[in-house]
Amino acid sequence: MTDTPKTFPPEMEEACKIIEKIVNEELKKRKRYSLEYGGNQKDTSETIDPIWKANVAASNCYEGAKEGVGLHSDQLTYLGPYPTIASLSLGRRYN
Fold it and tell me: How many Cβ atoms are within 10 Å of 49's Cβ, its own excluded?
């Protein structure tokens, strides 16, 4: 078990809100997989759009071109069969 995380700085909270808005707009454009978050909804007369909310956030500051993760694929099976993962890259830091 992990400790409750500290509160994020205001800039990170604002970035999270922006990303959540964009992800939700994009998810509305396509049909959901049956095992994906929000994909098991039954058709009803009222359309209720599930709202995707980030439940984890992380940030990294790379000091230049020699640092970074590069193109990769994570095995995140513990998140479910169709996890929605969003990321934001702000470029590189110049000294």
Answer: 10
What type of residue sits at position 93?
Answer: R
Residue among 58, 64, 85, 88 nearest 73 (CA): 85
Task: Give the structural domain span for 16.
Answer: 1-95
DSSP state of 77: G
* 1 pLDDT higher than 70: no
Name the pTM for this structure.
0.64
Give CA–CA dist 59/19, Å, rounded: 14
Single-letter amino acid code for the residue at 59? S
What phi and psi values does residue 41 have, to the nearest 5 degrees? -70, 140
Within 10 Å of residue 38's Cβ, how many Cβ atoms?
A: 15
